[in-house]
Amino acid sequence: MNLNILLLLVISTVARPELGDSLFNCGLYAAAATEYKRALFDKETAYLQLKTGLSLGAADELEKAADALHRAGELYPHISYESGLALSGMFAQKGQIDRARLELLDLLIFTRDSVRKAELNSDIAWLELASNDLAQAGSAYDKAGRADISTEIYRIERLHRKNPTIAAILSSFIPGAGEIYAGRYQTGLLSILATGGSAAGVYYAAHSDNWVTATVLFSVLFLRFYNGSRQNAVDFTNDFNLAQQHQRLYQLISNKNLKPDWFSPARKLTGLNFPQTAFPSGLWEKADRPVLLPSPHE
């Protein structure tokens, strides 16, 4: 018998939901979604609808996944928490923080369980941290009963920061000094040399009565280096402050294990392990990242 025909006969004897599970666990998410959809035509159940949404999300068909998971929550209220939390996690993994937050807020409105309310507020706080809104994050952790986290966030908010105005003033008097103040020593020294060199060129051209050359050097080189140094000083100081804040937040999140467990409740119902990816924001990257963030001016 032809091997392909034999394979088709074997597949035809397998229940479609079980085949969908096997395909999902093999990483064939689109094919799994197809099998779940076929099974839904035969008999729609809460778990099949939830599995369909999960497989569509894993296949990067986020809008279709949202439709399926919303339908699951509307038709089967007893799994609305699991489907809504999973959908929020899908949005978060794609960097769609506002949509992830909205899903959690919808769940929070209809949740009566105090433990789940605390978990949802904690998840919302994590999203606020990802948006760099420390005030809202602290407030949400307070609502979640995590006063220890909110206190640490407020402490991070009040960290001593370098002053961009001081950096600009320093570079106004000595171009490059503001960049050194911001921790960019090499850039600061280069700025001192570039600005000093162009100023010397202007002086010698003017001293030789070569006013055309002096004007060109002043307008094209000196002003460019001088104003660039001042702008860099401000930008680098802001970068330094932001990097320090991000580093402290990363340490806080790593030590307290605050990352939401988006897919565990759905996994308990369906047995499907949804693929989790690294969060796209630089805030959640590895701990040994450089203290200073890269800047477009360097």
Biggest sheet: strands, sense, closure?
none
CATH topology of the largest domain: Serine Threonine Protein Phosphatase 5, Tetratricopeptide repeat
Query: How many H/I helical runs?
Result: 15
Oligomerization category of the chains in this entry: single chain
Strand content: under 5%
- Integer count of domains: 2
* Rg on CA atoms, Å: 28 Å
CATH architecture label of the largest domain: Alpha Horseshoe
Classified in CATH, the superfamily of the largest domain is: Tetratricopeptide repeat domain
Q: Sum up the overall morphology in one term.
A: elongated
- Spatial gap, N to C terminus: 68 Å
Structure report:
By secondary structure, the protein is an all-alpha fold. The chain has two domains: 15-110 and 259-284, Serine Threonine Protein Phosphatase 5, Tetratricopeptide repeat, CATH 1.25.40.10; 164-256. 73% of the residues lie in helices and 0% in strands. The protein has 15 helices and no strands. Helix 6 runs antiparallel to helix 7 (97-110) and helix 10 runs antiparallel to helix 14 (211-256). Mean pLDDT is 84; it is low at 280-298.
